[in-house]
Fold this protein.
Amino acid sequence: MLHDLTLEGHGTRLVPLADEHAEPLSAFVDDRLWAGMSSPTPSTPEAMLGEIRAAHEAPARLAFTVLDGATGVVRGSTSFYDWDRRIGRVEIGYTYYDPRWWGTSNNPACKLLLLTHAFETWGSARVAFRADARNTRSIAAIRRLGAVPEGVLRSHRLAPDGTRGDSAYFSVLADEWPAVRAGLEARLSAGE
């Protein structure tokens, strides 16, 4: 869905995903980075534009482009999705970053911004994360956030080639949020 929400802090700026971001995003997306996603790798600006338009058309999805807060350089993309304000739940995902930002403060900063908004502005009771069960890098990043593992949904994902995969689920509940927030703030203070 189209939105006008912008989140900023810790050297990172999340702005609404827009057509103008297709070229810089497609410049670093490749099969390795896109592994575990359910659509073909959008490695051209035209293909990435299709992904952007699909994000805009998806109900209950707020997609962002992740920018360097100082330079405006495109670092990647992330989203809120499956947002149900009445029930107080949302998922964070559709996340991918230029590999040069892997292992930096970028992901903790993005997640702190998103989780803070979900819990402290929207009053969410639950924020979930999921990843292809084979994507060890993403699962390790989710665990480092402090999210609690909930289990694996078997045959939950459909790859572009028609093969099926499992989804590993994690969540943070409202009463767990203060400790998760403190952990993310400590990581950012340490420069991680």
